[in-house]
Model the fold of this input.
Amino acid sequence: MHGFTRRQTVAAALAWLDAQLAPLPSETVTLGAAAGRVLAEAIVSDVSVPGFDRATMDGYALVADCTESATPYNRIALKVVGDALPGTPFTGTVARGEAVRIMTGAPIPAGCDAVLPAESVESSAGRTELRSGASDVTAIGSVPPGKNIGRVGEDIASGTVVLEPGRVLRPQDLGVMSSIGRGSVTVVRRPRVRLVITGNEVLPAGSRPSGFHIADANGPMLAALADRDGASVDFPGLVRDDASDILAALGADADIVVVSGGSSVGVEDLAPSLVARHGELAVHGIAMRPSSPTGLGKIGERIVCLLPGNPVSALCAYDFFAGRAIRALGGRSKDWPYARVRAPLARKISSPIGRLDYARVRIEGGRVEPLAVSGASVLSSTTRADGFVIVADDSEGFAAGTDVDVWLY
Done:
């Protein structure tokens, strides 16, 4: 056993990592499989939506100026000459003094320039309603030209760039693409991530801890984080502290191999030496707390992220390095997918120059309460926390009352 002779800065580690990252090739998927994927093409509409003038409410399509001055005390008679329904237009031409009973979404009949709402019309029985078959109604309200009509291209005009490349597709985006006739879309391929959780003392997730064995906390946590960041995760099970087993996992068919455990300098920390022997170990040991044993490298074209086994360290290192790589390969922003707020510290946070610190915090009464900087194995500190504060390696910390940025879990 030996300690780290030198720890690289977070900035240097990120610089090496970023130099390896470029979006993966694209693939075509159906709209049903596109939600949450990253768009790899500009979506340009070759149709207008709507493709025809249509009613935006139920009522009567007519010539607007024939309702001028209509009130409950000055009723104007209208002759109903037909009906217009969605998908079933009225085929004639409407003259002044005539009206067509129309439903929302139905095409506007020829000759009409407005829709008088149903509540502004009375039937012969004195009721304000749409009554199929009624041939004589009276207007008891007026409507200006163009009112309650959705014009051609009002939603989307033909030739419009509807969605730009790089967008993470939301459910409403799928609706828009379907509305212009797109049934499939080109997206960035999801990064394939092989998750490797090592340790002879680790039991499968969900097991009851017993004796000197612990249940796997990192597997479920890291798999969920990678899924959040757009990865396709392969996690077939725990890997024993055996060089041949770990090497086999490092050679998986994946874009990124994320190893948790066995990344430090102990006698059972095999992963770093295997990466160095069979590929490139570019970074091993980073000046940050927690997560200082983190390593970065490559085997062939695969990026390898060596995360510590302590759960908080694994979470921190994932956010700084593995998650960044997954997001970038998948065409997403490298930035953290966390909202940020700014608030004053309730108590000071101290940190030595030369080391970045990741401090878990709560927000109580509008003030930031530090929970922990150390305690890399105390995962529950992250569930009690609302988020974290980063103390840069050129800072000695923050005094009480200082406004700080809090990244919200």
About this structure: The chain has a mean pLDDT of 92. Helices lie at 10-19, 171-179, 218-228, 243-250, 271-278, 311-329, 380-384.
